[in-house]
Amino acid sequence: MYPCKLLPSFDDAWCIGDVVVNIDGYSFKYSWLPWLSPYEYGWRAAVASMSDVLAKAAKPLAAVVSLGVRPDDSIHTVLRIVEGVRDSLNTHGAWLLGGDVNRSLEGWIDVATIAVKWAPKILPQTAKPGTLVYATSYRLWYAGLVLHSFYTGKWMEARKVFPKAFERFTRPILPMKFLELVRITPSCIVGASDVSDSLAYTLWNIARQNKLAIKLANVEAPPEVVDYSKRYGVEPLHLLLYGGEEYDIVFAVEKNCSREVEEIASELELEIILLGETVKERTGIYIGGSLVEPRGWRHFA
């Protein structure tokens, strides 16, 4: 069996037949936020890897983990990280097969996930002119709120005032019902991508790869986000576009069956929002004719 050509080498996951795999990793130094416990850090690392295969309409089955442990990390810390990985996988219907531990000065974690095609097709990062762009909406805005509070030094206060945002960010649950949505409406959903480096960055990747533009609609922000925006003087749109580690899914839908997709998503209790529409005029992301800056997380910036 040979690697399938549906998912290119630069994608976030790869397939061999009906098997989809991903590996995702982090440096402790740059990704361990101050309020995260070792357990929560492990939980999020597993979610990051599973999110990439879920966006391909593949169901996570199992994973392995590799840890680089710092000299001053206790055995308890290491065990709690691994337990977080295990419980995150179990919550999403997958298993931790095992892994290894190494010595490291700064510390790191890698999680590799094996998944199987769950819908009639595996979804690439594809869109075409005239499709509508949707997203699951469990952590959009909230991730931007949390990270904005961190980078501006206000996270301790914000954590008390906006607990819902921090809860959704700290121990994320993936929108697994997306698998059923694709299984029921395979001809309606053209392609998908997970959102982990900011929504703006993800949309720009889709636009560049497919050589099209995405015109964003006006999307109403949740009340907590509006409150945060007024309190700290930041636009809600900024929190939507420039977050990171959202682990939601952006997907393109054929216009002629958008109502069907919305109705089935509602029946599945899958939270989705309409972000906008693709056009062929130019390449980029636009709001009311203005170009959106493609900022997001960059490992080597």
Can you give a write-up of this model?
The chain is of the alpha+beta class. The protein folds into 2 domains: 104 residues, 60s Ribosomal Protein L30, Chain: A (2-Layer Sandwich); 160 residues, PurM-like C-terminal domain (Phosphoribosyl-aminoimidazole Synthetase, Chain A, domain 2, Alpha-Beta Complex). A hairpin with a 2-residue loop joins β1 and β2. α2 packs parallel to α3, α4 runs antiparallel to α5 and α4 packs across α6. The radius of gyration is 19 Å and the shape is globular. The protein starts with 13 loop residues before the first strand and ends in a 10-residue tail after the last strand.
Produce a short descriptive summary.
By secondary structure, this protein is α+β, with helices and mostly antiparallel strands.
How many strands appear in the DSSP assignment? 12
Uncertain spans: none
Coarse morphology: globular
Count of helices?
11
- Please state roughly what percent of the residues sit in beta strands, choosing from under 5%, 5-15%, 15-25%, 25-35%, 35-45% or over 45%: 25-35%
